[in-house]
Amino acid sequence: MKRGFLSEYFVGVAVKRLSAVEADVIASHQHEFNGVQGLRQILGAPVGKERYPARFIYLTDQDDEPVVDEGFLTWYDSRERARLTRGVQRHELRLYFPTNSVSQCAAEGDLLVIAKRADNTLLAIVAELGSTIERQLLWLFGFGDLSHPGFSVKSELETDQDRIGFAARAVLETIGVRVEENAPNYLDDMLQRFEGRFPHSHYFSEYARSAVADLDSREDPDAALMAWIEREEILFRTLERHLLAESLQKLRASSSSEPDAYMALTMSFQQRRKSRAANTLENHVAKVLADHGITYSRREVTEGERKPNFILPSIDCYRDVAFDAKLLTMLALKASCKDRWRQILDAAARIPDKHLLTLEPSISEKQTCEMRSKRVQLILPVALHPTYSIDQRSWLMSLAQFLELAKQRQS
Known about the structure:
By secondary structure, the protein is α+β, with helices and mostly antiparallel strands. It has helices at 20-23, 40-43, 80-86, 132-141, 166-174, 187-193, 201-210, 221-253, 259-291, 315-319, 365-373, 390-393, 399-410; strands at residues 10-17, 32-33, 50-59, 67-77, 93-96, 111-117, 122-127, 152-154, 297-298, 310-312, 329-334, 354-358, 376-379. A hairpin with a 7-residue loop joins strand 3 and strand 4. Helix 7 crosses helix 8 and helix 8 (221-253) packs antiparallel against helix 9. 34% of the residues are buried.
């Protein structure tokens, strides 16, 4: 096991496309995956019926939360008894799965991922055919062509492809694998500076940038933005872990042991984490724009209740009907896209061509083609471009390229 690589979390991974028989658990009674011979590389040769505790996850772009179920997978050789009793020299390996809420969501052609964890448990992930999360899982584990019917298997997870960076961490967290990173050297300073509580997101973003002294967004805006985002994520989780532990300790020491109190506490921390992600990206992009001398209005109403993240050069110019609309720019931000990118389409009606900056790796070609048809230009920091196909990369815009466009319009 090597720290910072997928091998830290997985012993091996296997992927395949679900056949009609495997997916349709109501019509089929076999409840077994086909083409499992390759699984011997990560599960070994079974002795009797080996039952693995398993977490089942179904993922699609349409739902913010995955469908999750707990259960087991059984790995066995259906010819084992025949070999022992009658000398039949034949193996027929099978992987049995129970009917559950995840298997009932699965459809023919969906991606199936079987991942063995270091604790000898399994993850059984089903991702919708053609979805962004399907693309992300294939990219994460380094799989390409899946035209053959059996499993494609990887048991070596310490190559350069398997190194865990920002994009890999995002995909791992989608499947419930939390990459633990912290910055203990900053904890005492944060507790003193912020008086033992979470500060306003604006101040926390400033603090994170101060902890990255060797990057200037005027020289490399793409690298600076990614470094700031990553540093703030680590600092936030370091402070969050400490404050949550303190809160839990106080709750245990109190006379109240009601489960609702614990649920309310964890929910408040989860809500803070979700709202912080959007604010973090907006705070750092605002700093990049300011560093490049680009004027903007932030979260101002355009039409109805729509409040785009940024209107360039200003909301006053946008509202001035005499101002040339070709010199206006709308920049929307989505830390993660899924299907939510469509939310920006009816904002800033005077600006038909929208710009959307995201940190989402490996969005499906189906989604990016639809973005292009809706006149949405996708912007990503350069470090995330390799997670996309070659055809997609020719269309993607970097943050530096967007800044040049904004400067030309402003001048």
